[in-house]
Design brief:
Length: 168
């Protein structure tokens, strides 16, 4: 749990939307690279991210080949080897290289600060409504991560508004 909290704290407080984290989706403490996307055309960002993910997939496969020979690893391979030191799985490097385990998470620092500013328009009213209906007032903070208090937010899945309500 500590690794998850640390990871998401970094996403929302350290890295802007022009940056991102290439990481392992099963072990959030395994961070391969911080990517700076500023200066890259929007139409080329996905390809750029995919290229970086492919690079780390290849590194993981090399580490798998050399996992019993750490002295033969490059500096980069050795760093990845050490990132998995607390993972007790004989196939950890191979497993990490396949599927969607290598993931990109865009930073949210700038968006989160804007959300905090927008929240001042709503938060006390929402807390009062929730309290009146016997609902924990802490739920008033949910829109910070769901929609950044953007009343026009719309997700790929079809969720809408501040609360990201899904259609039936």
């Amino acid at each position: 749990m500590r690794d998850s909290v640390h990871f998401w704290t970094q996403v929302y407080s350290k890295y802007s939307t022009n940056q991102g984290i290439i990481h392992d989706s099963s072990y959030l403490n395994v961070i391969y690279e911080i990517v700076d996307l500023s200066g890259i055309d929007n139409s080329k960002k996905l390809a750029h991210i995919q290229k970086i993910k492919d690079k780390w997939r290849k590194v993981l496969l090399k580490v798998e080949q050399k996992k019993n020979l750490p002295l033969k690893m490059t500096k980069e391979e050795l760093r990845v080897f050490k990132l998995f030191k607390n993972v007790n799985d004989p196939n950890k490097f191979m497993d990490a290289s396949i599927g969607k385990r290598i993931r990109f998470q865009k930073g949210q620092k700038d968006q989160f600060y804007k959300a905090l500013e927008r929240s001042t328009l709503f938060i006390s009213k929402i807390e009062n409504i929730l309290t009146t209906h016997g609902v924990p007032k802490e739920l008033a903070r949910l829109p910070l991560v769901e929609s950044s208090f953007n009343v026009f937010a719309y997700s790929k899945a079809g969720a809408k508004g501040v609360w990201q309500i899904m259609p039936q």
